[in-house]
Amino acid sequence: MLRGHIALGDRIGQESERLIKSGRLVPDELANELIKERLQEPDTRSGIILDGYPRTTNQAEVLLGFLPVYGFRPAVVHLMVDYEIIVARLSGRRQCPVCGTLYSLRTKPPKSAGICDLDGTPLVTREDDRESVIRERLGQYEVQTRPVLEFFRDTGVPMIEVDAANAAPEGISSQILGELSAAGIIGKIDFSCVEQGRT
Fold first, then answer.
1. In CATH, which superfamily holds the domain spanning 75-163?
2. How far apart (Å, rounded) are the C-alpha atoms in residues 115 and 138?
């Protein structure tokens, strides 16, 4: 959502871009406002996945306050990965500035080094994928976001914790879907479809 505003170049986008480039988080009020607006769109009726929100206990409290209004039952998925692995993964990402395709130098490199497979454009490192910015965000995570996990535990929100450091994406998906189903958040899952990549 923030990237959409950045692309538009509106007030929210300009402020967000400045904060993101410096590795800082957007203010709670702005993040809460964006989520509330987005939840009013028709395509959210069947459910939502929030990635990167909430990041503070204030945001978490606000979220739990307005989710019932829209008929949502929350669950938290916590992907646990060592910080050095996170730094290596994110700082190794490259993006095509034209089509937006993401590459990983380690797991999904372009066919020609530094060039987009789709349109031949030189790849770039996003501002928020610079190592110094990543480490700043991880530092903020420890101070602001880790308490959010404790907040959700204390309020009884179903918590799914996944060791995602070395697990295959399919295994991670299966664990998450299985636990969401067991908690009654989603319907029963046909895991033969999951294994065949048809979820």
1. P-loop containing nucleotide triphosphate hydrolases (3.40.50.300)
2. 29
